[in-house]
Design brief:
6-stranded mixed β-sheet
């Protein structure tokens, strides 16, 4: 279907190139003459367009919904439809990166008490410096509040290092009821098995080759890669630590989270703790294998 703007261009082309009258050009195009003569009376909205472009340049991977939330925080009264129209007119649409195939099948989630520290998820995400040397980031996420509790970059992170970081995190935040991870060697090491037993923290392992069973931290990894790692060039470990720390703080306190009603994780955690809602949330399917099972298996 051809829109009004295209019809106006077609009529103007017929008049300029072929010398047709407006009436005859409209009959060829199938456009009403009132539509061709219409002049928009909308205000230029220059200030709003400029601010929208500035925000889109700052947050290159944010779509119009998150940009609308940020504008609302600044006191902008415009509705989401107007923001979407300006977003399209300014050509700010984010190019979607190719998505991975999703698993198809029945899910059998377990229930977890909806409160902070009910369950943490751990996983690694990898990247490289400008010189080509690779490094990894240990991400720890609270599955209920979606807060990133820690994002620890280093060139090498062993099981003992993971245990030390968890001990330090518990001293500041408190102990979780459950920790979920994959079957990586760092998480199945003797250091982690001993740590979970000493601290009396239940550790669950997802099925091998099923990252969707650790969906909360995998989703976080995707956001980190899309909004930070793919958009940045790191010149060293200190640079990476500084940039990742700033992004983690922004993720927790400024970035609107769609699954939390576009609240920030920190605001959601604060409101959630104050309200104390007795609501259960589902965990990813298949989180069944425990530390005791691994110890028994040797």
């Amino acid at each position: 279907m051809v829109g009004p703007a295209a019809k106006r261009e077609a009529v103007a082309h017929l008049q300029a190139v072929m010398g047709l009258s407006e009436r005859r050009a409209c009959s060829f195009v199938g456009a009403d003459r009132k539509l061709i003569r219409y002049q928009s009376r909308r205000p230029a909205e220059t200030g709003l367009r400029t601010r929208l472009r500035d925000l889109a340049n700052e947050r290159r991977r944010f779509g119009y919904r998150r940009l609308f939330i940020l504008l609302r925080r600044e006191g902008e009264p415009s509705g989401v439809n107007r923001i979407y129209r300006l977003y399209r007119e300014e050509g700010l649409t984010v190019r979607k990166r190719r998505a991975r195939r999703r698993a198809v099948g029945t899910r059998a989630p377990i229930l977890v008490e909806a409160r902070p520290n009910a369950r943490w998820s751990l996983d690694f995400v990898h990247d490289q410096f400008a010189c080509g040397r690779r490094f990894r980031v240990l991400n720890i996420v609270d599955d209920v509040t979606r807060e990133c509790l820690a994002a620890i970059p280093d060139t090498s992170i062993s099981g003992r290092r993971v245990a030390r970081e968890l001990t330090d995190l518990i001293s500041r935040r408190g102990k979780p009821d459950m920790i979920v991870s994959d079957n990586g060697t760092e998480f199945t090491s003797n250091a982690i098995l001993a740590w979970s037993k000493d601290h009396r923290v239940e550790w669950h392992y997802i099925a091998p080759g099923k990252p969707m069973q650790n969906g909360y931290v995998e989703s976080f990894n995707g956001r980190m890669r899309d909004e930070l790692l793919n958009e940045s060039l790191f010149f060293g470990l200190d640079h990476a630590r500084s940039a990742i720390s700033e992004w983690r703080q922004d993720f927790n306190t400024a970035r609107p989270h769609s699954s939390l009603g576009y609240q920030t994780p920190a605001a959601f955690a604060e409101a959630f703790t104050a309200a104390g809602y007795p609501v259960a949330q589902p965990a990813p399917y298949g989180v069944t294998e425990t530390v005791e099972a691994l110890i028994a298996a040797g």
